[in-house]
Design brief:
The protein has three helices and no strands. It is mainly α and 100 residues long. The chain starts with a helix and ends in a 7-residue tail after the last helix. 8% of the residues are buried.
């Protein structure tokens, strides 16, 4: 149950992150420029530089999505365990008839 919830939340977060990443966004342009500069300093040029920078950005999106999915899955798990604990506590506290 938890792994399914984590997978679903990861997929949702990935879709949301992917939609938020636009080439013309200032944050994305800045991140691409920094990673392109990093690869330029190490001798990578041309289309390979852009491809490697985009791969880094895609890896970041995937990692953030996985972290979001795990976080949401664990929230679901903690709520489930807490709910079960309340039910068990209620059943244990329920007054029982004593045999007379």
């Amino acid at each position: 149950m938890t792994s399914t919830a984590i997978s679903e939340w990861t997929d949702r977060a990935f879709d949301a992150q992917r939609l938020n990443v636009r080439e013309n966004s200032p944050a994305v342009q800045g991140a691409l420029a920094r990673t392109a500069d990093y690869y330029r300093q190490r001798g990578v040029e041309g289309s390979q530089q852009l491809q490697m920078s985009s791969t880094v950005l895609g890896g970041f999106v995937k990692t953030e999505s996985a972290a979001e999915g795990i976080q949401r899955g664990l929230e679901l798990l903690s709520l489930s365990i807490g709910s079960m604990g309340l039910v068990v506590t209620g059943l244990l506290a329920w007054p029982r008839k004593s045999p007379t």
